[in-house]
Design a protein that fits this description.
The complex is a heterodimer of chains A (about 230) and B (about 325).
Chain A (H helix, E strand, L loop, with lengths): L5 H11 L6 E7 L11 H12 L5 E7 L4 H6 L7 E6 L5 E8 L5 H15 L6 H8 L5 E7 L6 H14 L3 E7 L4 H6 L7 E4 L3 E4 L4 H11 L8
Chain B lengths: L8 H4 L7 E7 L3 H12 L4 E5 L6 H4 L15 H14 L3 E4 L2 E5 L5 E5 L3 E9 L21 E2 L2 H4 L7 E6 L2 H10 L5 E6 L8 H9 L3 E5 L1 E7 L6 E6 L5 E4 L2 E5 L35 E3 L11 H19 L12
Parallel strand pairs in B: 1-2, 1-6, 2-3, 6-15, 7-14, 8-9, 8-14, 9-10
Antiparallel strand pairs in B: 4-5, 5-6, 11-12, 12-13
Helix pairs in contact in B: 2-4, 2-8, 6-7
Classes of the chains: A alpha/beta (about 230), B alpha/beta (about 325).
Chain lengths: ~230, ~325
């Protein structure tokens, strides 16, 4: 049975009609050769297949997390289900935009926004933000913990993804907290959205762009424990 | 986990469509509804975003007897409902949603709600003054560590645990009932002896086996070192009580202007209210504020309504690039 009903399919088709450059969704899952897939891996793959079918400019590549471990490592993907939203076509590019866990509920809109943003190649951030990002000189890892029922979360994720698009130093993950309880425990996530920058800075709630950028610039000076 | 896929929550209700407006009014009390009435009557595409008919000060008022032209006693909710119907008759649209954030810089303003994202050329802020002021001890420190203002966001983290919901309106009850799907027990702490929510919600709360009602109890403190471990409450006429919980979901109201969604984009006075000029313009072009969210204000429905009318007329003048107000004598 289709995950997207006819109305939503039509809306997504119309939204994706505005795509400029081609985009590729690179998904990592597990389950080839009859192995049982991880929780929500099958649903995530089915969802991406349905979405990818709605635009000629959108491609889907599904890879196995174990069998294709070198590729996963290359993209620094360490858990599944994982989706990287990549620029495709003659000049492919990995902007560091990641979604870990199924993008359902409020996060489905985030997936579509991500695709459109990568297709435009434009983050549409404030000029002050762009100036600040130019000063980055070391990798920054942003993790935004969410739940599918959180209406405040997509804004926090999209902002992080915009920053990733705008700066090659930044990788930004959406992490669906209930699918990765060990990470929710590790980062003491009891409320969402919760943004973790470089393992050291924790931000509660969806904050304005200027606030996040100020924290991000502060994170530059703090060591990053692990990626 | 139920899987749902929709671009915006509104799409699930099948009322999507165009979300670009000339005027978006935030708050549907007397100030907001009147602003919408005037804006819509001036043929501006107008949207009002409101939390609910009984979410504001007038909606909660049992009797109004001095609203001009409305003789006899009428409930505040009925008066607001009439204003809304009148605004709708001129083409204004009302949606029930909570505004989370706004982007008011620039010519096109963006309004983010829990249901959808809207854009507008002018925004009228009419959010009233029932926001919370001072937090209780422990609340800020334990935010995100068990203190939450959004059960639908965070309930999943409290599976099988004992939690508290503090509040007494529809939102508090709805969130408490949502939490019963996850938590083992939900302590509902109402600051008033009676819960001021709609009857069906009150009944659902009272009948739910996982809910323990603490009526007429004030929240004094949220306790815990690194995480919420308990709340301290003061039931009327009884000694204080410590209720062990791992989550405290707080939906209290107060008497402060509601401006948190602005995230500092507009200047406020020392008392937290919005500052406007004589024509209810704020510091940002195209952004107006009316009603109880303003300073030095006589908190009367008729005054709020009048302010809404003026702001809408000024907004109309500015959107149409005229120098003078268009006085609506003839229609």
């Amino acid at each position: 049975m289709a995950l997207l009903n006819a109305t939503i399919q039509q809306q997504v088709r119309e939204a994706l009609a505005g795509m400029e450059r081609p985009v590729k969704l690179l998904m990592f899952t597990q389950g080839a050769n009859g192995v049982v897939e991880c929780a929500f891996c099958a649903e995530t793959r089915a969802l991406l297949e349905e979405v990818a079918a709605l635009s000629d400019k959108l491609a889907l590549e599904v890879r196995d997390f174990v069998a294709d471990a070198p590729l996963a490592e290359l993209h620094r993907i360490d858990k599944i289900p994982a989706v990287a939203v990549l620029g495709d076509g003659p000049q492919p590019k990995d902007y560091g935009i990641r979604l870990y866990g199924i993008p359902s509920g409020y996060e489905f809109g985030t997936l579509i926004e991500d695709i459109l943003m990568v297709s435009r190649g434009e983050a549409e951030l404030q000029p002050q933000t762009m100036d600040a990002l130019k000063r980055l000189d070391a990798p920054v890892h942003i993790q935004v913990f969410v739940t599918p029922t959180c209406p405040y979360c997509p804004r926090a994720v999209l902002l992080a993804h915009k920053l990733a698009l705008a700066s090659d130093w930044i990788t930004a993950d959406m992490v669906e907290a209930t699918e990765f309880p060990h990470l929710a425990n590790k980062y003491e996530v009891y409320g969402v959205p919760r943004t973790v920058i470089n393992e050291t800075i924790h931000i509660e709630g969806a904050v304005p762009e200027a606030t996040l950028v100020a924290q991000l610039m502060a994170a530059r000076d703090k060591p990053m424990a692990q990626r | 986990m139920d899987l749902e896929f929709a671009l915006e929550a509104q799409d699930r209700q099948d009322v999507g469509g165009d979300r670009q407006y000339d005027v978006v009014v935030i708050g549907g009390g007397p100030a907001g509804a009147t602003a919408a009435l005037y804006a819509a009557r001036a043929n501006l595409k107008t949207l009002v975003i409101d939390k609910g008919l009984t979410a504001g000060a007038l909606g909660l008022t049992a009797k109004i007897a001095n609203y001009p032209g409305v003789p006899g006693e009428i409930s505040g909710a009925e008066l607001v409902a009439r204003m809304r119907r009148q605004a709708e008759s001129f083409g204004a649209t009302f949606v029930q949603a909570k505004v989370q954030a706004v982007d008011l810089e620039g010519e096109v303003k963006t309004i983010y709600t829990n249901e959808a994202t809207y854009t507008a050329r002018a925004v009228v802020i009419a959010t009233g003054a029932m926001g919370r002021g001072q937090r209780v001890p422990g609340e800020d420190r334990l935010l995100g560590r068990g203190v939450s203002y959004c059960a639908t966001c965070d309930a999943a983290f409290f599976q099988g645990q004992e939690v508290a919901v503090v509040g007494n309106d529809d939102e508090a009850v709805e969130e408490a009932l949502f939490l019963t799907k996850f938590a083992r027990r939900v302590h509902f702490v109402s600051p008033t002896p009676d819960v001021k929510a709609s009857q069906h919600l009150r009944e659902a709360l009272a009948q739910h086996p996982a809910v323990v009602l603490h009526a007429g109890a004030a929240l004094r403190e949220v306790l815990g070192r690194d995480r919420v471990e308990a709340i301290r409450i003061a039931p009327r006429g009884q000694p204080e009580q410590v209720v062990p919980v791992s989550g405290a979901f707080i939906y209290l109201q107060g008497n402060k202007p509601i401006t948190d969604f602005l995230q500092g984009q507009l200047p406020t006075s020392e008392t937290g209210c919005l500052v406007v000029d004589r024509e209810f313009r704020t510091a940002l072009p195209g952004v107006f504020a009316v009603g109880d969210v303003l300073c030095n204000h006589v908190k009367q429905a008729v005054v709020a309504a009048a302010e809404g009318a003026i702001a809408a007329m000024v907004a109309e003048k500015e959107l149409r690039g005229r120098k003078q107000l268009a006085v609506d004598w003839a229609k």
